[in-house]
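Hey, resending since the last one bounced:
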Amino acid sequence: ITELTMKKTLRILAVNLALLLTALNLPAQEINPNLLYRIVSPAGLAISNMENESNAANLFLEKRDNASQSQLWKITRLDNGYYTITNPFSEKSIDNADMTKGNGNPVIQWDADSGNSNQHWTMTLTGTGAYTITHRNSGMNLTISGSDSDGARLYQIPGGEQLWRLVPTNVRVPKKKVRKPSNNEWENGTIFAGNK
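The structure tokens again:
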């Protein structure tokens, strides 16, 4: 090997090493609280409330549908470092149903409440660009029951290794719903609060 060939080889190695180190130092994907995301399984299916706006409703995987509001989630970082995952159209958050022990359980949706630790999750970015989603209290990971298929129900299980991709959308976060005043005094929050 000539000295010229050796220098070229070393330059190429140096450039490749610099590119590799730059790639390793890139910041993690920032989760933007002003965006709505589809949370997508490896098979390309989205977490959905399937247009059910009830408390305690199960959550499922569903074929991605750009017209479906039930597949849109606002991911908000809390001051304590955890995240809430809320569908802003139903105003329900992904909730672990207050289960902290055992072999796992179905995950539900419940009225959004950032103070409710049942709705607190960690979002851990993996080397693949996908996330694991782990519950604050149980330490269980968000996963699915059975195969990664349309209609599979969401669970939290110990040691689950389900990966989720966050797919940003162009859908705007809706403004908060304003409850219309009632004609019934007992339903009027101001009167009710004053009579407590």
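Helices lie at 3-24, 189-194.

Sorry for the duplicate.
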